Amino acid sequence: MQAVLTISGWVLLLQGVGGLVNALFGWWRWAHDLLVVNLLPVLDGYEVFAAIVLGVLGFVLLAASDATKKTKEEER
Nearest 5 degrees, angle CA 9-CA 11-CA 16? Predict the structure, then answer.
């Protein structure tokens, strides 16, 4: 479970940061089709907010992964 949380957290964090940088500065034009915020037509005009939400969710998943690791260590 911890591995799934860690991988999901990093993917969401990278999607959030990449989407935010691409929406604000226009960098990474080559990654435009790889970012989730650009693939969903519902998010047109809200790419910055969606990228922030993805980044925050990534941090939450990474924190949950770390908490499960600490809980397993305390049980030993």
Answer: 95
Q: Give yes or no for a contact between 13 and 20, defined as CB atoms under 8 angstroms apart.
A: no
Has this prediction a pTM greater than 0.90? no
Query: 8-23, pLDDT tens digit by residue?
Result: 999 999 999 999 988 8
Q: Are 18 and 38 in contact (CB under 8 A)?
A: no
3-class secondary structure for the chain?
A: CHHHHHHHHHHHHHHHHHHHHHHHHCCCHHHHHHCHHHHCHHHCCCHHHHHHHHHHHHHHHHHHHHHHHHHHHHHC
